């Protein structure tokens, strides 16, 4: 069996930042493996550990910098990784959902996995759409926002819990092959061990171009474009307690006493 | 092709609020584009739903009597057939867990672009969608220069439509290919339960990822004890197993409305806010003055929780454990 896990290196803005044109200035961004993808990697790796002969491959569409994140996934037990990037991707204005789905679909076609795990959402642009769009593109069945998975490999069924709003799970049986978008909390992602990190250095990490999958820059053409980014005007009308911790704690304590919600 | 088609959402016999928010957003969009607003409801007691959905602003309601509950394979097919019939420029869907389970597939099947989690829509052509990025720290304008598209809207961003409507209600006969239904919903399960109900508390001390380490949870436990309050949390704390699931506030946890909600090291992500915005008084303790929780807070302390919380414990005669 083969499981393909899509992973994205996401950017997080520091507390103080500046916007440069259509994005936050590079200097104020920190990069990390997307939280949801960390859970997706763990889910795949733990399935591989329980079963015989399960290969876990991860794929990212991202620049060279993303290799650090991909190595993290390898250190946690992914067997092999693919990074798709080339000049066309580097100069693309925006990678929208459709473009990502088309690129990842080409990778799925080549790799022919039984299952694809993506995260529910990428924490930076948070489309929350890539996994389901990918499933439709490749003709796989799918389930979004999965917080529990029982796999019946023989029967070709993934029994999942989908986490709906309000603390209710939907129980669904999904035919495989399938794309599952993985929700945080489904498992406990491991930390990479030192041994894992050493081994990751020797695991294959192939860099592929669009052309290697028979794609060209037309796959990146999209009617969707970002035309502005700004810090929204604050809606805050909060009373800000000023001073050192003793003073602010004192003011908060007075407030709580005034409200009559605490004793003492 | 200036019409808007929205598809309502229901679960276990009830329409969800976002269905009425779709009407408001859809009306706005239809007016901007000079078209009609069509609303469809798929599955369940469609006639009763249609009656409820017949609020001001809706031009046509299509009832599609197909199944009881949401199934994405059915919804994708029905959406596609409705679009062939109505030929809308925009398909408007909720950015809910179920919305995200089929909207991207519909867009992909039709070969049209999708923009998710909209908090604003404007302009006739091209359409301008406002959405957030980087954990709500910035907003962006997304322009879509396409004759047809799919947009999903964030819940509670638009008010729910009310008032008596005069929509033309039609039943729509969908032709669902069962061989293409490859998933089966087998039931629902209520998560949580347990010893405490955070929804009952007058004062909630709520902790987020700013607490950093499991060992530090004692600090907020101690504060809750000193205040005679109840401890709750954001999702990552529960995901990490530091507190049980029944303590989670938010979209996938509990909705709480205490007299005072003290958010400690919580950024205020939309899914968290969904669970606590109805609190009477909101206090935020966060090092980041720009964290979105500040937009909601009535009182804020922009400082390190590891300084403020011990001082607060001492104010109430307790002793800081750290
Ligand atoms: C489908 C779905 C459902 C979800 N459901 C929920 C839900 O029900 N509930 C929920 O909470 N989330 C939910 N989430 C997750 C949500 O998107 C956020 O990831 C989560 O709420 C973030 O939690 P947080 O604020 O604790 O962490 P972060 O966003 O990481 O924020 C930590 C905050 O702590 C501050 N901080 C750091 N150090 C300190 C310090 N020393 N002193 C003071 N402040 C400090 C930081 O400035 C930051 O603002 C859901 C997500 C999805 C996709
Ligand atoms: N550039 C990318 N490379 C690989 N996987 C991605 C990329 N962007 C998104 N994904 C996957 O799709 C999921 C959802 O992302 P999104 O739809 O962008 O919110 C992420 O959790 C990733 O697993």
UniProtKB/TrEMBL annotation, chain A:
Keyword Electron transport: yes
SUPFAM superfamilies recorded: Adenine nucleotide alpha hydrolases-like (SSF52402)
Electron transfer flavoprotein alpha/beta-subunit N-terminal domain span: 21-217
Keyword annotations of the record: Electron transport, Transport
Superkingdom, natural source: Archaea
GO molecular function, one term: electron transfer activity
SMART domains recorded: ETF
InterPro entries named in the record: ETF_a/b_N (IPR014730), ETF_b (IPR012255), ETF_beta_N (IPR033948), Rossmann-like_a/b/a_fold (IPR014729)
Similarity annotation: Belongs to the ETF beta-subunit/FixA family.
Name listed for the protein in its UniProt record: Electron transfer flavoprotein subunit beta/FixA family protein
Taxonomic path: Archaea, Methanobacteriati, Methanobacteriota, Stenosarchaea group, Halobacteria
UniProtKB/TrEMBL annotation, chain B:
Domain of life of the source: Archaea
Start and end residues of each Electron transfer flavoprotein alpha/beta-subunit N-terminal domain: 4-185
A GO BP annotation: fatty acid beta-oxidation using acyl-CoA dehydrogenase
Classification via SMART domains: ETF (SM00893)
Any GO MF annotation of the entry: electron transfer activity
Family that this chain belongs to: Belongs to the ETF alpha-subunit/FixB family.
Protein name (database record): Electron transfer flavoprotein subunit alpha/FixB family protein
Organism, as annotated: Halomarina oriensis
